[in-house]
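Appendix B. One record, verbatim.
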Amino acid sequence: MKEIIAYEMSFNQALEYQNDIICIPFHKKYWNEYMKIYNECFYNMRNALEVEPVNFYFDYSQIKDKINDIFLYIQNGVIAGAVSCYGNELDDLIVGKPFQQKGLGQKLLLWGMNHIREQGYQEIILHVAEWNQNAVKLYQKNGFRIKKKERIH
């Protein structure tokens, strides 16, 4: 594995955004589709950074304890994207390939931020690899600031 630079980012501002998408709680029937989209979304980064396994998810047991914190955006019966909210941490924001470059990543980010605020948290945090500059820019554009820079070996 190559050295990975990761940012802990934080959002503490007022959130003036009404969700215009509806996300549903994760259900086991979506496992295979979610696994495929998740692995596709992180494949290039994990491969470039030599993180093994490159395809992280392979068995439902890896996710079964997390399903209450994963929310899916379904469009025409398929997963368009998903976001995970663990307490005040936003994680695993993914968008399926056919739905990318259409603003859905930002909508999922804002949906997750609203969900976390609805749970009573003021500060919202997330972690992102420096390698993933598109995500870093999206988060900064939406008010997140780098709080800490970490080296992962």
